[in-house]
Design brief:
single chain; alpha+beta; Immunoglobulin-like; 45% strand; disordered N terminus
């Protein structure tokens, strides 16, 4: 009977050890599953900077120095990038057109500004041609330490006679990547993020064209005379070349020494009264109906010529001899 009691004494102990061992194995398996499902801290991410050309007057767009900016497409991953099972790869190509590019007016896409797209540092881009084609250790080394970058130079082409407004266009790059593991490679398994895919990324090129006028206003030369009434009337023009589609009025301010309804030229403390008159012989001023209006819409190519006359008042007292001058501002409102 004693052996029976001994056996009974050991049997519960044996079963208890087995149950304890099973619980430990189950706990280890659960822990392993948690580790494998942990995401990597970093993510393979394509990013880009937009091509903002800024705001420029229409005259600069049509005949001035080309407007230039840069933009880039980037593809970067984390600090640990390993191959898994097969060769890692990264490719990039521009999928949109690379020739005949135009920025389109947002309110009328038929109105355009031409531009070109080139690599920073020189060369050309070809639509659909691989710009980046990396594989194996090349892509692993690059993405482990930095980023794959496509640097673009965006330049407007002169000659566009366009109205004010916002002009845009889109440039798209396709990134294709495969077998890139961000995280830890364990027995040919990726603990982290296994990256394989294809994605299109787009930048928007933007140019804002502003209203502008080129003003040609020759100096008024009255010449020399002994008395105010002896000066001849001067007849000449102010010429304006303004942005296509622009409606505007033109005013002349009272000058530096204006007094009441008359402008004045000065020689030291002395004053010589004069004025500038529109075609209807009313004084050309800078407020309300005294401005020159009804010029019609500018076409961006044909100058508006505004005739005027300038006269020294004969009804003023004689003034001391000297050189009399004034400065009058031409202002354009639109």
């Amino acid at each position: 009977m004693k052996p029976t009691r001994v056996l009974l004494a050991w049997q519960p102990f044996f079963h208890a050890r087995k149950a304890s061992t099973w619980r430990w194995l189950r706990g280890a398996l659960a822990l392993a599953l948690v580790i494998c499902s942990l995401p990597a801290a970093a993510v393979c991410t394509p990013v880009e900077s937009s091509g903002v050309l800024g705001s420029h007057p229409s005259q600069r767009v049509r005949t001035g120095t080309p407007i230039t900016t840069t933009a880039d497409f980037r593809f970067g991953c984390g600090t640990v990038v390993l191959a898994v099972l097969s060769t890692p790869a990264l490719k990039a190509k521009i999928t949109t057109a690379t020739t005949g590019l135009t920025l389109k007016k947002t309110t009328d896409t038929a109105i355009t500004v031409p531009y070109e797209l080139t690599p920073v540092g020189g060369g050309t881009f070809t639509q659909g041609l691989l710009i980046i084609d990396l594989n194996s250790s090349n892509v692993v080394s690059l993405l482990s330490n930095n980023q794959a970058i496509i640097n673009l130079k965006i330049t407007t082409l002169t000659g566009a006679n366009v109205p004010a407004g916002t002009y845009t266009d889109n440039i798209t790059v396709n990134w294709t990547y495969a077998n890139i593991c961000e995280g830890i490679a364990v027995a040919n398994a990726c603990v982290g993020n296994l990256r394989t895919g294809s994605v299109d990324r787009t930048i928007t090129v933007t140019l804002v064209v502003t209203n502008d006028c080129t003003i040609t206003a020759p100096d008024v030369q009255f010449g020399t005379a002994p008395l105010p009434g002896a000066f001849n009337t001067v007849a000449q023009n102010i010429t304006l070349l303004c942005t296509k589609g622009m409606a505007y009025t033109v005013g002349l301010d009272p000058g530096i020494y204006g007094s009441g309804a008359r402008r004045q030229m000065a020689s030291g403390a002395n004053r010589l009264q004069y004025n500038i008159f529109r075609q209807d012989q009313s004084v050309w001023g800078h407020l309300g109906s005294a401005r020159v209006a009804n010029l019609g819409l500018a076409d961006g190519l044909t100058p508006h010529v505004i005739p005027y006359t300038a006269t020294i008042y004969a009804d003023q007292p004689a003034v001391p001899q000297g050189s009399y001058t004034d400065s009058v501002k031409v202002d354009v409102q639109f």
